[in-house]
Amino acid sequence: MSNHSSEDIVKVENLTKIFGSGKKAVKAVDNVTFSIKKGEIVSLVGQSGSGKTTVTRLILRLLKETKGKIIFEGQDITGLTGKEKKLYWKKVQAIFQDPYASFNIFSPVKKVLIDAFKLFDNSFTKQEKMAKVYEALESVNLRPEEVADKYPFELSGGQRQRIMIARAHLIKPKLLLADEPTSMIDANLRSGILELLLGLRDTEGTTIMFVTHDLGLAYYVSDRLFIMHEGKIVERGDANKVITQPEHPYTKQLMMDVPKLSEEWILK
Ligand SMILES: Nc1ncnc2c1ncn2[C@@H]1O[C@H](COP(=O)(O)OP(=O)(O)OP(=O)(O)O)[C@@H](O)[C@H]1O
């Protein structure tokens, strides 16, 4: 499964995020350190409230850290200004749990996708942009003529997630943060979406960080796993090793939540 390089694309060092203060303070992310290699697929796995989404939002610069560094392609990006963030978002994109939150729901699909070009300095004509949008929709197995004029709320959860992946095909980020990208769709469709994401890595070399509570799903797609509990990474390593020889009690507990791991994900 691994076809990644030995070079780090992103490195998170002693990252801490505390929400609120005094008695109400919540340490959502507690001194977290990890790195991801170019072309690698890793998963951040943990139960609700463990701090996964906060890590994602910190990497995306939607939140400011309390402490720590985030090094992307060798540069600390914690001090990026507004204009610099725009350039950064060309390289680092996210697919969120609820695609509604990421779309302008008052725009039809084709506009949502054409808007992705705002991240580029480009001289594409309207026709060229449209052709690329159609190509991107086809690459996620959607029929452009069927969905292009629809509004996001007219689509199924799975279709909306495909549209976010189509958007990633247009933007071609170097790092894609995929927060529970399959949560809105049923198990049968999930593997199709995952294959599309794996395809993005294979065709574009995209590095992917999955964020999920589902250890089985994480194992299915990842080179390495980072297990997160109460703001800390409690176990990490090669996906096979973490699954076959879990060391931390919390990982063992997560394993119990996936009793059908082998049947569901390996034998399919
Ligand atoms: N904006 C915020 N203000 C205050 N507390 C917050 C905020 N965002 C998150 N938290 C708290 O930080 C902790 C970690 O939340 P986070 O959303 O990162 O967890 P998660 O592992 O992503 O959970 P889920 O899987 O449910 O999305 C939780 O206790 C949460 O209540």
TrEMBL record:
Protein name: Peptide ABC transporter ATPase
MF terms (GO), sorted A to Z: ATP binding; ATP hydrolysis activity
SUPFAM superfamilies cross-referenced by the UniProt entry: P-loop containing nucleoside triphosphate hydrolases
Keywords: ATP-binding, Nucleotide-binding
Pfam family, one: ABC_tran
Superkingdom classification of source: Bacteria
Residues covered by the ABC transporter domain: 10-255
Species name: Petrotoga mexicana DSM 14811
PANTHER family: ABC-TYPE DIPEPTIDE/OLIGOPEPTIDE TRANSPORT SYSTEM, ATPASE COMPONENT (PTHR43230), ABC-TYPE DIPEPTIDE_OLIGOPEPTIDE TRANSPORT SYSTEM, ATPASE COMPONENT (PTHR43230:SF3)
